[in-house]
Amino acid sequence: MYREEIIAGLKQQEPFDLLIIGGGGTGCGIALDAATRGLKVALVEKNDFSEGTSSRSTKLVHGGVRYLEMAIKKLDRNQYALVKDGLYERGVLLKNAPHLSHRLPLVTPLYHWMEVPYIFAGLKFYDILSGKMGIGHSRLVGRKEALERFPMLRSEGLKAGVLYYDGQFNDARMAVTLAITAAENGAMMANHLEAIHLLKQNGKVGGALVRDNLTGETFEVRARGVINAGGPFADRIRRLDDETVEPILKVSSGIHIVLDKKFAPPATGLMIPKTEDGRVLFILPWEGHALIGTTDEPAELTDHPKAEEKDIAYLLRHIRRYFDLEITENDIQSVWSGLRPLVFDPKAADTARLARDHVISESPSGLLTITGGKWTTYRKMAEDAVDQAVQNFALTPQKGCISDRVPLVGGANYQEGGDRVLVRENNLDPDIAGHLNRSYGDRAQKVVQLAEVGFAARLHPDHPYIEAEVIYGVRHEMAQRAIDLLTRRLPLALLDRAAARSAVDRTIEIMADELGWDIERRADEEKLAEKRLGEAL
What is the DSSP-derived secondary structure letter of residue 486? Predict the structure, then answer.
């Protein structure tokens, strides 16, 4: 469905059952859950789907090893429940989106013998809590095996390691795929559409005045209930409802840097359980590169947070500490920063309730706000939010929640060895075939068909992304801007900013032909892409 059809659908007179504000993982998950229950759903996102926090994670699908440590040390039932539910949801995500996620072994290096029983026992308990949704068994690995898996690991003083399993995924494509799956189930999903005012009747919220940030047009979207899924910006939406409301969020920033693949083996990640200031650090293989993160610093609220030099230095310092490698800022191919929404005051005048690791609150006017949580539990967060909305807004869904068994677009008939079929039947380079299979799943052949009519060229010679994906992103994945495509439909900007810069002109050229952009719009796209790639993604 093209944007004009979506906008026309949002303008209809009959109110939607739900209007969701925010198109990150939580908002898109809510839209999918509600749509598959048979509710009439609209979603608006002021930027692109997952342009904020949801595309800037550590790319792990996990129960939360550090939460388990807190649960044990403090006998905290809430932390225990958070881990147990996270491990269950990890299994659901891996099952419903097999093309976008996979199991990843991780090694924790141990440099003191006293750490061995403590870390090993904790990770075995992690396995036990996952139950039937387990994805592998933790085990001790000797010094020799640890160094075989990580030849660059600092060998001096290394005693042993513990190997355990978590999931890994492509977060930006996950959110986009959630949006597409929701749309295919009847939801009206619109990016670059910003809620600027909440509509009220008899003191109750009944929709929003929205502004199209691409055209400047404003119009009303009416709904029986409104859910605020604004992530770090949830307080801004709450202030549209009541400008005097007390904030419930603080934000912290976490940065990630991307290095050449030589800094991380292709099949195993490294987890440092405690850095100099008690943080957890990950060194992971991701999309043919090494992903290192993350930091945790107080931050100011902004759409595109910039990675601070001191945070980059922090990560580099710890890499040098654990690796026998010379690493400098010149080795960094990309860096990005994301904001974490931290709930610090879930009381206020709202009737807030704690739902495991997230908070759902209702304002006097009926606005539902969901905050907190993490990517792994997005589906559970969505289920809880829709359950609450059905009750609060007296909605009548056709069925109950089925999101735990709804394959996401591309996942229903995904074959792990599908890349070999693409190579054999379409004469594709192996790296391109592997990328298409993992990114599009059972719809990869549709991208191949576009490639066969003249769009098979790579966007950059060092990466597997091809011109056909630009057309596919416009026609089937609601990409509206060149930077949307180069950062979230494809992860090129997240992996290699220099390569993304070199792909901007061709990407704009293809999108302009597809969408009928004039010279002025092309110039705007080039300017925006250069700004994002030069400053903050």
Answer: I
Cα of first residue to Cα of last residue in the chain, in angstroms, is 27
| Cβ partners under 8 Å of residue 456, min gap 6 | 466, 467, 468
Q: Per residue in 414-453, pLDDT tens?
A: 999 999 999 999 999 999 999 999 999 999 999 999 999 9
CB atoms within 10 A of CB 300: 8
**Domains of the chain, first to last:** 3-54+173-248+345-405 (3.50.50.60), 102-169+250-339 (3.30.9.10), 418-534 (1.10.8.870)
* Angstrom distance (rounded) from CA 20 to CA 41: 8
3-state class of 97 per DSSP?
Answer: coil
Residue 439 tokens read as 């990114």
CA distance 290 to 102: 16
Each residue of 315-361: pLDDT tens digit? 998 888 888 878 889 999 999 999 988 887 545 444 333 334 789 99
* 307 neighbors 297 (Cβ within 8 angstroms): no
Buried b (16+ CB within 10 A) or exposed e, 385-423: bbbbbbebbebebeeebebbebbbbbbeebeeebbeebb
Length of the chain: 537
User: How would residue 266 be classed by pLDDT, with cut points 50, 70 and 90?
Assistant: confident
Residues 15-44: b if buried by 16+ CB within 10 A, e if exposed: bbbbbbbbbbbbbbbbbbbbbbbebbbbbb
Residue 117 CB-half CA count within 13 A: 1
How confident is residue 75, by pLDDT bands cut at 50, 70 and 90?
confident
Rounded to whole angstroms, how far apart are CA atoms 242 and 360? 17
Name the phi and psi angles at 269, rounded to 5: -100, 170
Of residues 154 and 533, the one with the higher pLDDT is 533
Q: Is the pLDDT of residue 196 over 90?
A: yes
Q: How many CB atoms lie within 10 A of CB 170?
A: 23
Give the contacts of 531 (CB within 8 A, at least 6 positions apart). Answer: none
Q: How far apart are CA 230 and CA 235, in angstroms?
A: 8
pLDDT of residue 345: 54
Please report, for the chain, how many H helices and E strands are present, in that order. Answer: 18, 19
Classify burial at 182, counting beta carbons within 10 Å of its beta carbon; exposed 0-12, middle 13-18, buried 19 or more: buried
H or E stretch at 395? none
